[in-house]
Amino acid sequence: MTDFFKDIPPIRFEGTESDTEFAFRHYDPSETLGCKTMAEHLRFSVAYWHSFAWEGGDPFGGQTFERPWFGDTMDAAKMKADAAFEMFRILGQPFFCFHDVDVRPEGETFAESLSNLEEITDYLGQKMDETGTRLLWGTANMFTHRRWMSGAATNPDPDVYAYAAATVKSCMDATKKLGGANYVLWGGREGYETLLNTDLKREREQAGRFLNAVVDYKKKIGFEGAILLEPKPQEPSKHQYDYDVATVYGFLKEFGLENEVQMNIEQGHAILAGHSFEHELAMAAAFGILGSIDMNRNDYQSGWDTDQFPNNVPEVALAYYEVLRAGGFVSGGTNFDAKLRRQSLDAEDLILAHVGGMDTCARGFKAAWAMLEDGSLEEARVARYAGYDSSDVLGQDLGTLYERVLEENINPSPRSGRQERLENLVNRFV
What we know:
Belongs to the xylose isomerase family. It contains 15 helices and 14 strands. It is of the alpha/beta class and 430 residues long. It folds into two domains: 12-374, TIM Barrel (Alpha-Beta Barrel); 379-427, no CATH class.
């Protein structure tokens, strides 16, 4: 056991007038919007890796955090789980997410690592039964260990491909055993550093074969959750095959997986791809593959993935607006794939970072809900394309349209897109 969070009280909703530091001002889990509570809408989740496994390093410096559970033993792994579920209790978090390496020590062999995973899976299951906290998704870390330096499914060594397959199988088994709502694959090193030693066609085909095998195994074991892919353009690789939502959808179509796999979309990754978060969410919704989100932010003055807690309500509101337009979460949720700054050393910092993130999300979500309820944005969108409702132009060929333009002397006058009006409208809500 650990007293790491000693004297930190459970976080309660106290409203906007509260001056209590350890309290929610905007997130009331029991507040109802439509037919769901805020807890059911947002489905908050803690990222095990950033909150409990990360040691505080960055590309230019090593460990700054000192945690009593840091270590490569099963005792340390169980102490980490004790601390994690204590934090879930304090925050009232309904979900958590993990990689295999976050929760168990690395063994000398795959068999030893598997034994460690199976043992800690049973322990996590006991903690889940005690607290009611559920698993939003599980995944495999196939990017940290040196064996993955040239990728996992896309690795030029078939033994690494086999090891990756065995790793994913073990993590899917653990996720199913714990009742996980989803299983995520993030290709952290599924890319290349240089084209001089890379066969792009072969590596893409390997990745497609691997993902098909994952879907086949999901069906074999009767896993009812969604399989999610998480796009990211670069970092650590120079270029990654899962660059953004549109790229991934093309990949899924190529390998016949567009009806089998959905997206887990991260705000920080969207920014690295040169997009906004809401753009990536809207693209996924348009393709019918919006599954879940990793909520964080990047520092706009840094060129890498800083994974900071969200604090920008207008940005969050626009993101949740797209989630709501798509019908809201089904199996997915809001996972805080965010970490403390490496100077934020205290237990209180870890709690308050999540409190602030949850309040920011709640404010943004309620603004998004109000915008959708108001309907003005959607009315403007519908009106902009209304001409197509009474037109047959999309069913005619080029020659027919050519003759029509000549015969009817069509000479269109441009119409305002009214962007500033719509931006002003959004600002009424945020």
